[in-house]
Amino acid sequence: MPHVYIAAGSNVEPEHHLAMASRELEQHFPGVQFSAWYRNRAVGFQGDDFINFVAGFSTDLAVEGVVERLHFIEALCGRTREAPRWAPRTMDLDVLLYGDLVRQTALLNLPRPDLLTRAYMLGPLADLAPGLVHPTEKITIGELWRRFDRAAHPLVRVRPGGKGDD
Q1: Bridge partner list, 123
Q2: pLDDT (tens digit per residue) in 14-49
Q3: Which residue is catalytic, options 39, 69, 94, 112?
Q4: What is the pLDDT averaged over residues 89-113?
Q5: Catalytic pick from 49, 60, 69, 92?
Q6: Which residue(s) pair with 51 in the sheet?
Q7: Bridge partner residues of 58 (DSSP)
Q8: Structural domains present in the chain
Q9: Between vectors from CA 146 to CA 144 and to CA 147, what angle results, nearest 5°?
Q10: Is 55 helix (H, G, I), strand (E, B) or coil?
């Protein structure tokens, strides 16, 4: 059974939508585990800060079935598929890794290429699975995060509910 890691992010009522997405992930994927939540600047457009986390779970579903369920959860959170790519989001759920699957299609690239360039994906994944070996880089997620330029891509850890850690 493959282990799947997904990124979740929102910058429209993020605490509300991330809590809703977390509950839905628990319903659809029993045993799901969550990283800490992190606040970061919007990437690719001017907008409110995002709050993000990474979730990991094992599933019998094919990757297409996982994506279908993630789209269902996004829709529950008010996301429409027609929304512009670089714009505010009520919910964005992306598959980062699906076991060791390497696939490049028009609809899905695995492992997700921007996992290596986006702090809000790599940092929370390193919290959750630092010893996991990246399927194409062949080094651990923890080592990738240690090498990452964190100063250029700051993350602020927040408690669920959006409050900063003291």
Answers
A1: none
A2: 999 999 999 999 999 999 999 999 999 887 777 899
A3: 94
A4: 94
A5: 92
A6: 10, 39
A7: 3
A8: 3-158 (3.30.70.560)
A9: 65
A10: strand
69, 89, 112, 118: the active-site residue: 89
The confidence score (pLDDT) of residue 138 equals 97
Cα 99–Cα 104–Cα 110 angle in degrees, nearest 5: 30
Q: Does the pLDDT of residue 163 top 60, yes or no?
A: no
- Nearest 5°: phi and psi at 97? -140, 140
* 130 secondary structure, DSSP code: T
**Distances, alpha carbon 153 to alpha carbons 104, 119, 156, in Å:** 27, 6, 10
Enclosing H/E stretch for 54:
strand 50-58
Residue 89 is a catalytic residue: yes
- Which of 39, 48, 69, 79 is an active site residue? 79
What is the C-alpha separation between 96 and 105, in angstroms, rounded? 14
Of 156, 118, 158, 123, give the one whose Cα is nearest residue 142.
Answer: 123
> Can 159 be counted among the known catalytic residues?
no
H/E element holding 28?
helix 14-28
Q: What is the mean pLDDT of the chain?
A: 92
Torsion of CA 127, 162, 154, 149, to 10 degrees: 20
- Residue 33 three-state SS: strand
Q: Quick one: pLDDT at residue 21?
A: 97
